[in-house]
C-alpha cells in the first residue's frame, strides 16, 4: 500500500513539474512576443503619426516588443530584401506599387473583411491601398490640398471672395497684378510645382487607367497624350498674366497663423495644417469643379500600412493592424490633430474642418494625386518642366519629354 502511494505521489510530482515547465515556457513565449516594423516614410508629419500609434500600442501591449527599422536610403525594395522578415510596413503609395510589382506584399483582403474596412473607412483610403483589384494596404491619414480664402483680407483689398474655380482663376489675375503672393504650405515631400500639377491634372485621365500601366515603359505613358493638357493649361495661365514665377511662395506653420489673422487673402495648404484655424471668415473653395475648369481635389496619403509577404509574426501583426485601424485608436489620432481615414473618428468642427471631411467623404480613386500613380522619378521631371514654363521655356511637348527623361 505504501509502495502504491509512493508511485502516485511520484506521478503527481511529475505532472506538477511538467505543468510548471509548460507554464514557464508559455510565459516566456508571451514575454518574447515581437513585431518587426519598417518605416519607409520620412516627412515629419507622417513620422509623428506613426510614433503616436506605436507608443499607444506599447502602452496597451507592454509584453510585446516593437522592433522598429527606419528607411536607410531611397530604395525601399532593397531595404525590405535586406530585412526580409518585417511584419508591418509604413510606406508611400509609389513605394507600395514598387513592392507589389516585386511580389513583396500580401493581399490583405481578409483583414478588410474581418475588420469591416469597406464600411468603416473612406473610399479614398481604400483606393490608396488597392492595385489591380487587390488590397495591399490602407492609407491612415489622407489629406487634401485645399484652396482657402480669407474674406476679411479680400474686403481690405475691395475684392469679392471667390467661390468657384473659375472665380478663383479670375482672382489670381487680379492678385498677380497687385503683386500679392500666394503662400503654399505642404507636407515635406511636396513642392509648389508638384502641388499645382496635382491640382490641375487629376481630371485629365482616370486613375484606374493610369494605375493599370504602372511602370510599363515609355510607350504606355506617351499614349496618354491628354496629360500634356496640364502643361498647356499652365502655359496659358502664364501667357495671359494669371500666374508667373513669383505668384507662389513656400509657407510654413507660421504662415498659417498669419493667414488666420486676416493678413493673407489666399492660402493653398495641406489639410494637415488646418485644424488650428479659428477665423470664421476663412472659407475653403468648396469645389474645384466649374463649367470650364473641372478639377478633382487631389487627396494625398504619405502613410500606407502594408503587410510584407515574408512576415513571421502573423498573430502579432494581425493584433497590431487591428489595433491601429480600430475606431478607438483612430479617434485618439483625430484628437491629436490628424484627419483620419476612419469615418467614425472624424467629427465636423468649424467650416474649414467640415469641408475637408466632406471632400474626403466624396473622394474616389480619381482623387488620388496623379504623382502617386506613376514611378517616383516622374516627380522631379514634372517639377522641372513646370519651372521651365514659368521661365518662358514652354515647348508643347512637355509630357513626352518627362516620359523620356524618366526612363
From TrEMBL:
<comment type="similarity">
    <text>Belongs to the bacterial solute-binding protein 1 family.</text>
</comment>
<dbReference type="Pfam" id="PF13416">
    <property type="entry name" value="SBP_bac_8"/>
</dbReference>
<protein>
    <submittedName>
        <fullName>ABC transporter substrate-binding protein</fullName>
    </submittedName>
</protein>
<dbReference type="InterPro" id="IPR006059">
    <property type="entry name" value="SBP"/>
</dbReference>
<feature type="signal peptide">
    <location>
        <begin position="1"/>
        <end position="22"/>
    </location>
</feature>
<keyword id="KW-0732">Signal</keyword>
<keyword id="KW-0813">Transport</keyword>
Amino acid at each position: 500500500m505504501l509502495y502504491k502511494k509512493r508511485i502516485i505521489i511520484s506521478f503527481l510530482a511529475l505532472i506538477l513539474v511538467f505543468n510548471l515547465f509548460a507554464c514557464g515556457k508559455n510565459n516566456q513565449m508571451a514575454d518574447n512576443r515581437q513585431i518587426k516594423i519598417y518605416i519607409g516614410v520620412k516627412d515629419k508629419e507622417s513620422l509623428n503619426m506613426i510614433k503616436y500609434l506605436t507608443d499607444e500600442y506599447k502602452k496597451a501591449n507592454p509584453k510585446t516588443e516593437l522592433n522598429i527599422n527606419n528607411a536607410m536610403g531611397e530604395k525601399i525594395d532593397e531595404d525590405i530584401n535586406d530585412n526580409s522578415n518585417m511584419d508591418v510596413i509604413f510606406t508611400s503609395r509609389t513605394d507600395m506599387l514598387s513592392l507589389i510589382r516585386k511580389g513583396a506584399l500580401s493581399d490583405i483582403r481578409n483583414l478588410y473583411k474581418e475588420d469591416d474596412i469597406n464600411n468603416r473607412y473612406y473610399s479614398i483610403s481604400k483606393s490608396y491601398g488597392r492595385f489591380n483589384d487587390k488590397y495591399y494596404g490602407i492609407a491612415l491619414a489622407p489629406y487634401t490640398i485645399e484652396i482657402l480664402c480669407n474674406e476679411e483680407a479680400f474686403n481690405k483689398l475691395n475684392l469679392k471672395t471667390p467661390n468657384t474655380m473659375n472665380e478663383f482663376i479670375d482672382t489670381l489675375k487680379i492678385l498677380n497684378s497687385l503683386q500679392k503672393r500666394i503662400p503654399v504650405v505642404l507636407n515635406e515631400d511636396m513642392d509648389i510645382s508638384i502641388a499645382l500639377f496635382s491640382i490641375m491634372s487629376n481630371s485629365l485621365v482616370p486613375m484606374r487607367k493610369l494605375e493599370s500601366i504602372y511602370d510599363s515603359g515609355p510607350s504606355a505613358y506617351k499614349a496618354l497624350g491628354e496629360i500634356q493638357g496640364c502643361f498647356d493649361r499652365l502655359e496659358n495661365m502664364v501667357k495671359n498674366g494669371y500666374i508667373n514665377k513669383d505668384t507662389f511662395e513656400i509657407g510654413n506653420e507660421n504662415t498659417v497663423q498669419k493667414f488666420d489673422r486676416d493678413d493673407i487673402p489666399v492660402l493653398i495648404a495641406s489639410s494637415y495644417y488646418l485644424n488650428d484655424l479659428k477665423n470664421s471668415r476663412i472659407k475653403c473653395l468648396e469645389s474645384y469643379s466649374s463649367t470650364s475648369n473641372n478639377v478633382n481635389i487631389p487627396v494625398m496619403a504619405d502613410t500606407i500600412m502594408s503587410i510584407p509577404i515574408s512576415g513571421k509574426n502573423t498573430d502579432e501583426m494581425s493584433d497590431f493592424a487591428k489595433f491601429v485601424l480600430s475606431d478607438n485608436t483612430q479617434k485618439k489620432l483625430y484628437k491629436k490633430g490628424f484627419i483620419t481615414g476612419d469615418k467614425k473618428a472624424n467629427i465636423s468642427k468649424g467650416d474649414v474642418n467640415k469641408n475637408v471631411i466632406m471632400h474626403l467623404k466624396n473622394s474616389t480613386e480619381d482623387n488620388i494625386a496623379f504623382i502617386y500613380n506613376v514611378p517616383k522619378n516622374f516627380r522631379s521631371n514634372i517639377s522641372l518642366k513646370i519651372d521651365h514654363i514659368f521661365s518662358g521655356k514652354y515647348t508643347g511637348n512637355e509630357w513626352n519629354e518627362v516620359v523620356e527623361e524618366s526612363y
